[in-house]
Amino acid sequence: MTHTMTHTTEGGSRAGRRHLRPFGFAVLLLPLTLALAPVSVRAQEEECDEGHHHHIHFSHPIFTESVSPDDKVRLDWAGTFAEDEDEHEIEFEGEYTFADWFSIEVAAPYAFVSETGEETENAFGNLEVALKFANYAFEDRGVLLGYGVEFGLPTGDPDKGIGDDHIVEIEPFFNIGIKTGDLELVGWTRFGIPTNQDEGEEVETEFHYDAAALYHFNRRLQGLLELNGDVGLSGEEAGEGTVSLGPGVKFAPFFDNAFMVGIGASFPLDDSEVDAALRVSL
Hints:
Elements (H helix, E strand, L loop, with lengths): L17 E2 L1 H30 L21 E11 L2 E15 L2 E14 L5 E4 L2 E9 L7 E11 L14 E13 L2 E13 L1 E2 L7 E11 L4 E12 L8 E11 L9 E8 L5 E8 L1
Antiparallel strand pairs: 1-10, 2-3, 2-15, 3-4, 4-5, 4-6, 6-7, 7-8, 8-9, 9-11, 11-12, 12-13, 13-14, 14-15
C-alpha cells in the first residue's frame, strides 16, 4: 500500500453526471497488467516442478510497500505534524498470498484531523485494495520484479476532510527489489488516476515514487533509510510535489517469532507545509 494519510480536499460540484474519461485509460491498462502475469507464472511453476526453487524474499520497510507477496497482518499508527494542522491515522492492513507470485492486500485507515483552534474530526478514510504480482525471472541475481494495481475505494467522509465519497482512484504500480548480502534495496513507481468524478471536477493525476534501503544487522535488528515523494502530472497541482527522507529501525522482540516492531520518522526535503511525520508499525 501507499501508506499515505487519507486527508483530502474535495473540489468541484457533486451534482450532474460522472466524469469517466480517466477510467477508460485504466480499463485498458488493467488487462495489460494482468495479461503479463501468466508468462512469468508458467516459468516459475516449471522451476517449482524441478525441485530446485527457493524464492527470494524482502523485508517490509516502514513507509514504503514491500515488493514480495506476503502473508501478514500489520497495525500502523502514523502522524503528520504541521504548523496549522496535525493528522493522526490508525491503519489495519492484511495481505494474503494465493500463490508465490500473487497476493491481495487490503488496508483500512481511520484518521483524526486536528486544525489549530478547531475540534478534531475523525472518520474512516478510503479503503485500499491492491493486487500484487511478482516476477522471479532474475532472482538468481538477487533481483525481484513486481507490478500490479491498487484501488482506492470511496469510503471516506469529505465533509470532515478525510477521504472521498465518490472518486475511485486506480493506481498501477511497478517495483523492483535488489538483495545483496544483508542489504535490501527497493524502488517503487505509482501512477494515481482518479475516476468516477463529478462533472466539472478537475482531473488531477499524480506520480509517486518510493525508495528504501534496509540493512540486516542481525536476525532481530534492521536499519532503514527511505525516500518518498510525489508530483502532480495534471490538474491544479501539475508540476508541484513533495519529497521526504526517513530513517527508521525494525526489531524482533522475541526469538523465533514473526512479530516485529518498526519505528520511522520522515522529514521533508522541500518547502512542504508538513514539519515531520512519524510511523509506528506492528
